[in-house]
Write a structure and sequence with these properties.
The protein is mainly beta. It has a single domain, classed as OB fold (Dihydrolipoamide Acetyltransferase, E2P). It has 1 helix and 5 strands. A 5-stranded mixed β-barrel has the order 1-2-3-5-4. The relative contact order is 0.25. The model has no long low-confidence stretch (mean pLDDT 92).
């Protein structure tokens, strides 16, 4: 891989989440949770968001822990790709 490609790939965001739906062709839905601190009360709160990810081989199943990487828009809702499966569902 060339130096330019390595630099470009380092700038892309990488998230980790859990697959909640795999019913679409070449698409899965991943739930990504993050923790934020409440502005006034300073209590830690969980926030979550669902991302549609491009899964070329349909390798994901519900419950898998995956890593996603940012990419150019593939469709109206998809702008994340499956990077790898961290842990398969039991």
């Amino acid at each position: 891989m060339s130096e330019k490609k390595k630099i470009i790939q380092k700038r892309k965001k990488v998230l980790q989440g859990v697959i909640v739906s795999d019913k679409m062709e070449k698409t899965a839905v991943a739930l990504v949770e993050r923790t934020v601190q409440h502005a006034l009360y300073k209590r830690t709160i969980k926030r979550s968001k669902k991302y549609k990810i491009h899964d070329e081989e349909n390798a994901c199943q519900i419950g898998d822990h995956v890593r996603l990487i940012e990419c150019k828009p593939i469709s109206k809702d998809k702008c994340w790709r499956l990077l790898d499966i961290v842990r398969k569902a039991v």
